[in-house]
Design goal:
The protein is of the alpha/beta class and 342 residues long. 39% of the residues lie in helices and 21% in strands. Helix 2 (40-47) crosses helix 3, helix 6 runs parallel beside helix 7 (158-172) and helix 10 (251-267) packs across helix 11 (291-308).
Length: 342
C-alpha cells in the first residue's frame, strides 16, 4: 500500500506496509501511481506530454530499484500470518464521536470548527447504544474497558452523553465488565480506586520515575519528615570519563546509563525513588538513612555496576533534605570524594 502527498514543496511517498518514507521528484511522484498496472512503454506514453522519455526512464529505474530493495510496494507480512489470521479479535476501547459541531468554532481548529469539513451532525442514542453493545460483545475475556466521547464539542450533545453513560453503567455488571467512561468516574467504594492504584508494577526494586514526578515526591517527603523527624538524603551520581569530566552524549554514555540505571534499581530499597536528572546524572531520594549510610548505598551501587562496566567512573555527592531551605527549595550537595573505576 502506498500513501503519497505533497507538503512544503516536497513530494512524499510512504510505503505503508514496509514503513519506508521517500522524497521523490515530480516525475517519480507521478510515475508511482502508474507503476504496478502499466508496462514501462505504457508509462512513457502516458507521461510523455509532461516529461521527456529520458526523465521517465530514469524515474522508472529508480522506482524499480526501490521495489527490488524492499523499500517500495512491499507486501503486508501480517496478511497471511496464522497468528494474525487466527487471533482472538478483542476490542478494549471505544471513542464515540457524538458531536460533529462546536459552539466556539475557532478558526485555527484542526477539526474545521468542529465539523471536520462535513455536515454538522450529532449522534443519536441508538447509534451510541449499538456501539457500546458492540464493545461489550467483542471484548472477550478483557474486563477493564474504556469509552471516550469526542467531537467537535461533545457537550453540545450532552443529553445523549448522559444517556450513554447511564446505559453503559447499567450493563457492565451483568457482563462482568469494569468500564472507564470519560475521565475519572465516581467510585462507589474506595476499594474500586485502590484496585486501579494497586496494578502490578512492571519492575521490582527502587521506584524509577520522571523528574517531574520526582519533584512532587520529594516535596511530599519533605513535608513528612518536617513532622516525623525522619532523616532523608538526596544522592546525585554523575557518570564521568575517569578524569572527573562528565560523559558527553554518545553511544558510550547510552550504554553506561543503561547499566547504571539497572545497578541503582537493584541497589536501593523498594521505598526509595530515583530519576534521570540529566544526560549523565541520576538523582536518588533515600528515606530513613543517615550520612554514613549513603556511603553504604554508594558501595552497593558500585558493586552492581562493576559487574557490567569496569572502565567507567562514577562520582557522587549528597544533600540532607532537612538542611534544604524551603525558601529557595534548592539542594546544596556535598561531594563525597568518591570516584570509582577500574
Amino acid at each position: 500500500m502506498i500513501h503519497k502527498f505533497s507538503m512544503n514543496g516536497y513530494n512524499i511517498v510512504l510505503d505503508v506496509d514496509g514503513g519506508s518514507v521517500h522524497i521523490l521528484d515530480d516525475v517519480a511522484y507521478e510515475l508511482v501511481d502508474l507503476y504496478e498496472e502499466n508496462t514501462k512503454e505504457e508509462i512513457i506514453s502516458k507521461l510523455e506530454n509532461k516529461f521527456t522519455a529520458e526523465q521517465i526512464e530514469e524515474a522508472y529505474d529508480e522506482i524499480t530499484s526501490l521495489k527490488e530493495e524492499g523499500l517500495l510496494f512491499t507486501t503486508d507480512t501480517y496478511e497471511f500470518n496464522p497468528n494474525f489470521i487466527n487471533r482472538e479479535k478483542v476490542v478494549k476501547a471505544l471513542c464515540l464521536h457524538v458531536s460533529h459541531d462546536c459552539n466556539l468554532r475557532c478558526k485555527y481548529c484542526f477539526a474545521s470548527q468542529g465539523d471536520f469539513g462535513g455536515e454538522k451532525e450529532i449522534m443519536n442514542f441508538e447509534v451510541g447504544k449499538a456501539a457500546i453493545d458492540y464493545l461489550i460483545a467483542n471484548s472477550g475475556n478483557r474486563r477493564n474497558l474504556e469509552i471516550d466521547f469526542f467531537g467537535g464539542e461533545p457537550l453540545m450533545n450532552f443529553d445523549v452523553v448522559k444517556q450513554l453513560v447511564e446505559y453503559g453503567r447499567s450493563i457492565e455488571k451483568e457482563n462482568d465488565k469494569n468500564t472507564k467512561i470519560g475521565k475519572h468516574d465516581k467510585a462507589d467504594h474506595v476499594n474500586e480506586i485502590q484496585e486501579g492504584l494497586n496494578q502490578r508494577e512492571k519492575d521490582d526494586g527502587a521506584f524509577f520515575c520522571s523528574y517531574l514526578s520526582f519533584m512532587e515526591g520529594y516535596r511530599y517527603v519533605r513535608r513528612v519528615i518536617e513532622r516525623s523527624g525522619q532523616s532523608a538524603y538526596l544522592l546525585l551520581c554523575t557518570m564521568t570519563d575517569g578524569k572527573g569530566v562528565p560523559l558527553e552524549k554518545g553511544e558510550r554514555l547510552g550504554k553506561v546509563a543503561e547499566e547504571l540505571e539497572q545497578a541503582i534499581r537493584n541497589s536501593l530499597r523498594r521505598g526509595d525513588m530515583f530519576t534521570r536528572y540529566s544526560d549523565n546524572q541520576f538523582l536518588m531520594l533515600l528515606l530513613g538513612i543517615r550520612q554514613e549510610d549513603c556511603a553504604i548505598v554508594v558501595e552497593r551501587i558500585n558493586g552492581y555496576f562493576e559487574k557490567a562496566s569496569r572502565k567507567n567512573y562514577l562520582k557522587y555527592s549528597t544533600a540532607p533534605i532537612s538542611e534544604i531551605r524551603e525558601a529557595d527549595d534548592c539542594a546544596h550537595f556535598h561531594n563525597m570524594d568518591s570516584m570509582w573505576g577500574e
